[in-house]
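In this section we walk through a basic example: taking a raw amino acid sequence and producing a predicted 3D structure, encoded as discrete structure tokens. The instruction is simple. Fold the sequence below.
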Amino acid sequence: MFSNRHATGGGGSGGGHGKGHGMGIMEHLDRIREEYNSVNTQLGQQRQELEKLSIEREQMQRQFMMYYEMSLSMNAEFMKQNEVNKKLSTVLQQVITLLPPDQATTASAAFERAKHVTQADLNQAMMGNSQAQAMALLQGQLGMQLPGNPLMNPAFANPAAFAALAQANSERANSARPRSASGKPEEREAKRTKIDPDEDEGGNIDVEVDEPSGSGQTNGHEKKPARADSGRESAHSVASSGASTPGIPKAPRNPFEAMLGVPTGGAGGRIPPNLAANPALLTSFDPHAQARLLAAAGMVPTNGKPPYSYSVEGTSGPRVTNFPADALTAPGTPNTLKKIDELPHGDVVCAVTVARDRERVFTGGKGCVKVWSLPSSSSSTPSSSTTRTPLHSLDCLRDNYIRSVRLLGDSSRLFVGGEASSIAVWDVQEQKLLCELDSEVQAVYALCLSSDEKRLFACGSDGKVFVWDTHNHQKIATLNGHSDGASCVDLSFDGLTLWTGGLDNSLRAWDIRELKESSKIEFAAQIFSLGCSPRDDWVAVGMESTIVEVVSPTQPEKYQLHMHESCVLSLKYAHSGNWFVSTGKDNAVNCWRSPYGANLVNYKETSSVLSCDISLDEQLLVTGSGEKKATVYEVGYTSTSAL
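The resulting token sequence is shown next.
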């Protein structure tokens, strides 16, 4: 009886208690799970904060090391100068005792005066050394040596330079996208200049080069091809079977290397390994960050904008160009570009030329030159590019890309050169091919007519320059000099000198009367474009290294312009000689004041700008781009007349 009662009672009571206890355990488990998830989330946040603090600590340690090196450098320099002063004072005192009494008295007084240095003397000394400090900074001595080196550049004794460095690094890290770079030589061995109409949105030009690690009156701005035996690469890409391209030797990664003649990075041009992983510190080796650093350090008067024009004289280092007061406001100086028309060529436009009467423009693409009418006045309403049709279409060069077109003054004949061995001569009025001039080279990169239009000069892919008679179509001479392809050509203002630029990094002058080379200028990078001033002997040269240089055979100085961000593909002087235009793979159209390079207009298109031309009255600018079209701009001036 007892056992039955206990069994019944115990079973009923135990079942109810077990159920309640089980529910309590589940609640505890759920609560523990929630708390665990919460703690895990907080742990993740703490880890992120820890990583941020670690990065900040690393940056602070690097900054501390920079200041530590500055302190060591300043102490060492102070001790050195102190010892030098002591020794010089001893020598002077000994020399003074050897002087006659009257001279000794004067020398002693001067010696005592020299011991007293005023603030004005210090300011004058600092102004005198500012250029030397600026050049030291440009050479890459930015205090980024490895720890423990007490011989840091004395330029960093100026605290303003360090503050500017921190600001430049911060701006660069926050605003600029890092550029990709391959660490494998085989991935960088070929630099190709190509136009591939089969890629992306139809024919963006792709000039593969090694990437380096707004206008205003002040000197600041707002904001190959694989080697073959001969010939420059096909404009159609590597898939083009009929053309190949000479190689581009490695150009300086930093634009200032060409100016200074030495590597600009620390440690012989190589970035220290412990800095390679920090983009913010790597900006110290970037020319644009260096320019911002100089401007922020107050070493050049740029109104807060980095300088872009430098003058170089002889073997001295470059210095920031001082523009005249009317650099942007003189009569005939353009200040705006207004798009008034688009010409849908249908293929990448590698060559353009405007007729002298300004009624027609000729655009060269792949295998044909198209002739377009231009608006009768700049105020005409631009036509829609979808409805625009050419007047004529001239089939040329057997479906090869056209690199250059030249038109006679009366618009009667057109000369067409490109990625073919022959130069096509067309009768524009009759729209028929008159003849073909066989140059016996793989490609003809550029053409130029003499001032009397009796001679045609053609640049060959093998480096030769051919001279043709435009009337009887006979070859007159062959000018040998370039060791690699001759890429561009223009005639001097007096019509007596022919200037050619080459892929061998040389600019050569030829005496037209004697048909021989008269001079040569070597550059640090391949020359892609050039233009001669119609008013004087200045020659503007556009290079693969993004620099535009303006040189003269009679002037001791030259100018170097740093605004393009990629290779300079075309260049053209206005007929007045007051200004010129350069275009590049960076989609930029820049108008410059000649010769010192004040930037008048900085315009950005949406694709690489391959060619350009300016009308005779300087009212129109036409560009050809990788977007398969040509664009017509109206040039706006600071005065009522361009000439």
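Looking at the output, two observations stand out. Residues 2-98 form the longest helix (97 residues). The two ends are 130 Å apart (CA to CA). In the next section we compare this with other chains.
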